[in-house]
Amino acid sequence: MFIGRQQELNALNKLYNSGKFEFAVIYGRRRVGKTALISEFSKDKDTIFFTGVETNAKQNLDNFSRCIMEYNTGIAASLSFASFQAALEYVFELAKTKRLVLVLDEYPYAARASRSLASTLQLLIDKNKDSSRLFLILCGSSMSYMEDHVLSYKAPLYGRRTAQLKINPFDFLEACRCFTRFSDIDKALAYGVVGGTPQYLMQMDDSISIEENIKNIYLNPTSSIFEEPNNLLKQEVREPAIYNAVITAIATGCSKMNEISNKIDEDTSVCAAYMKNLITLGIVKKESPYGEKSSRRTIYSIEDNMFRFWYRFVPENISIISRGAADLAYKRIAPGLSAYMGGVFEEICRQYLWKLLLDGKCAVNFSDLGRWWGTNSRTKTQEEIDIMGTDKDSALFAECKWTNEKVDLSVLEIFVERSNLFHYKQKHFYLFAKTGFTKGCMDKAAEMGNVTLVKYSDMLK
Q: Among the four 88, 108, 154, 287, which has the fewest Cβ within 10 Å?
C-alpha cells in the first residue's frame, strides 16, 4: 500500500500535465521511497522505466534497450541499440507524437559506467526540448553524485532540469499512517526507533510490542536492519571505517568538532570534511544556538533516528547480541529508552509547531525554529530552551517533557523565568507533555493567558 508523498505526487502530475518537455531530478538517500514514488506516479501513464545497475556500459545499454523494446512491442526483445545516444534519440522521437515518461532510475550507476551519458542527454535535450513531449525523470540514491554531477552548475545537465525533488524521510504524522494497531505512545516509540525512512518503517510489526520489535530488528544479527548502518556507509562513502568512528563519537556524547576529532584522532579539518558528507546524507545535523550565526558554539548530533538508535544501543551490546541473548540486551537498553525519547519528542513537537504555523493556528508567526543554549549572565549557570522561534518583536518558547509524571507548576515557572534571558515585547509559551499537566500548572497557564498546554495525545488529532 502506498502511503504519503501527496505533495511530491502533485508536483510530478503538474509537470506531466504541462504537456511539454519536462526534466525532473529526483534524489534522496537509499530506502527513502524514491522508486515507490515514481512507480505510483507513473502507474497509469505511458512509461519506459529503466534502472541502472553497477556494471559496465554495455550491460546497462542492453538493459535500457530491452526496456524500450518491451514498451514499444510488449516483448522483451534481445535487440540492442548501438549506443545510448541512438536509444535516447529513439525515445525522444517516440515522444514527439505522445506524452511519454522516461525514468532513468539509479542514474549514477549508468552514468559512471558510460561517462558520455550526461553529455549525450545534454545534447539531445537541447536539440529536442521544443518539439518533444517527453517527461524525463533522473533518479539517484548517491547524494554526492546527484548534487555534484547533475545539480551542480559545473555539471553538463545544469540548467536543463525544470524541477528537482529531494525526497526526505516521512515526518512523524506520515510515519504514524504506517501503523494502525500501535497505541499513540507506541507510535512515538516506533518513530524514535526507526525514524521516517519507509523501508525501515516497514520492518516494524504493529501486531507485537515495541520491545519485541526492538529485539527482532536491532538485537537479531540476522535482521535486515542489523547491518544497515554499515552497509549504507559502504555504499555512500569511500572510507566507511572513519565515518563509522565519527558517528560513534557523536552517539557516545561528543558534540563539538574538537571533541569529535580528539575522539577519533583526526585533525579537525579532516573531521570537518567527513562531517559535511554525513550532513549531506541526512545522518548528522549541526546546530548553533537559535539566533546565533557564529559557528563558535556549533554542535553536532545524529539526525536520523535509525542511526541514532543503532549507534546509541547496539555497539555497546554487540557481544551479547551476537550470542543470541536478545532478552539480556533489551534489559540493558530499556532503562535508557525514556531519556533517548526526550530528543525524539522535541523533534515531534517542532513538527507540530510547523504544522500549526502552516495551518495558520500558531500564536507566533515564526520563520524558523531552533534550540537555544548558553550562560545565564545573572546566575552564571548554563541554560537551555528546547524550542525557540521569533517574529520581529514576538517570540515563541517551547518546553518538551517526555515523562510518565504530569508536568507540574514548577516546570512552567522555571521555563518562564528562563525566557527572561530574552527581551521581546510579546512572548508565547508552549508546554508539551507526554502524560498531561497538574491542576496547578493548568491554573497558572490559564491565569497567564499566553501559555498553550499541549498533551501528546492531542498532537495526533
A: 154
